[in-house]
Amino acid sequence: MEINGIEHNEQVRYDSLNLSPELLSALEKKGYEVATPVQGGCIPYLMDRRDVVAKAPTGTGKTFAFGIPIVEHTDPASSDVTSLILAPTRELALQIRDELRDLCAAKEGIRVVCLYGGQPIDKQIKQLKQKPQIVVATPGRLMDCKRRKAIRLDRVKTVILDEADRMLDMGFIEDVTKILDMMEQRDNLGLFSATISREVMDISWVYQRDPVEITVRPVAEDRPDIQQYRVSLNSREEKLDIMVALLEGGEYERAIAFCNTKNMTDRLAAMLKMQGVRCEAIHGSIVQKSREKTLERFRAGKLRVLVATDVAARGLDIDDVDVVFNYDVPDEQEYYIHRIGRTGRAKKHGVSYSFCATITDEVKMDQIAKNQRYDIQKLKYDEDGCLMLVE
After folding, report:
1. CB 56 within 8 Å of CB 195
2. Are 318 and 250 within 8 A, CB to CB?
3. Rounded mean pLDDT of the chain?
4. From CA 339, how far away is CA 258, in angstroms rounded?
5. By C-alpha distance, which of 113, 86, 102, 99 is closest to 193?
6. How many CA atoms lie within 13 A of 157 on its CB side?
């Protein structure tokens, strides 16, 4: 980990961070004693209400890095919104809410509300009337609530943009800047991201003051333990049979298969069902209630395969995915990183397979391996139908 360009390799224990006994007890109950690098780097500065720009890979504990200081700063007796966390997707917003509620259980009286699209806004406005101190929201739904005068932001002290790069790439930059302009009493702003894009740096330049820059590089100890394979195929028609063969041969109980389009996601789910595989599709055109039910079934082990577009590549709180299939090679390298990051979580071993059926697919995978410095093993079926490593 680097803090303002200076390397720091020492481990940081939670009990060395001047946290309250209540928070330490909550962390101890979860079995946590040592902070992850991004947590050890960010928590002291956010506790001091400093502006922070944190770049860290997916799955390195970013939610607790800002969640712990937020809970510590929150006054249970307050009836004002004093902390705001913005997230690009409803799935990530819900995950953050749940993790914050775990922390808040140690301090009675702290209330957390999540605002996101796909659910009746009246229900969420009713929750806001309970006077939460912490709000987690997607930008669009927060603006809807603000237009209805259902929420006040003028007393917010801490603002966090989680997955800031993704949020700005999705076109939320106008909403984000409007929201930041509403909070004149803001003490600090934290930008958390897997990559630091030009748009993220523009937000930092305008809205932050002397930010602390914390970088957790995806080196061996921070990268998830994921064995990556690319499978060279002769045609697209081979993908389905090979995926089913790999599922059975590897005895994988829980898998996510990623496609580039909604149409392909629905088609693959239908084809897998015809093969007797318990699966469902999830993408942006499926109503939120149905998506949540599908995710609940997947978490409960009632589905073996979740077929998804990149809407599900971030923010899914599922730690025990055995394997990820890139049924379609993604168009963007960042999508590849976040897709395979759904496996190998919580220090477990994971596996990913990427199907290459065209020259374009092969070129994309070459670029991903080179630019991300990934060791991606090449696989190919021989004339006898045996899967072989390609030297």
Report:
1. no
2. no
3. 89
4. 7
5. 86
6. 17
Write down how long the chain is. Answer: 391
From residue 71, alpha-carbon distances to 52, 107, 349, 391 in Å are 17, 8, 32, 52
3-state secondary structure of 304: coil
Cβ atoms of 89 and 292 within 8 Å: the answer is no
pLDDT winner (highest mean) among 83-97, 278-292, 310-324, 372-386: 83-97
Determine the 3-state secondary structure of 66 from DSSP: helix
Enter the tokens of residue 51: 């502006």
CB 208 within 8 A of CB 189: yes
Residue the block writes with tokens 């947590």: 39
Which position has the token pair 């477990």?
348
Domains and CATH numbers, the chain: 2-215 (3.40.50.300), 225-390 (3.40.50.300)
Q: Which residues contact 2 (CB under 8 A, 6 or more apart)?
A: 8, 213, 214, 215, 217
The Cα–Cα gap between 360 and 362 comes to: 5
State how far the Cα of 322 lies from the Cα of 247, in Å rounded to an integer. 10
What's the pLDDT tens digit per position in 112-152? 999 998 788 999 999 999 999 999 999 999 999 999 999 99
The CA–CA distances, whole Å, from 47 to 17, 30, 69, 296 equal 9, 22, 5, 35
Q: Among residues 286, 290, 238, 240, which one has the least CA distance to residue 263?
A: 286
pLDDT band at residue 310 using 50, 70 and 90 as cut-offs: confident
Q: What is the pLDDT of residues 141-179, one digit of tens each?
A: 999 999 999 999 999 999 999 988 888 877 788 999 999
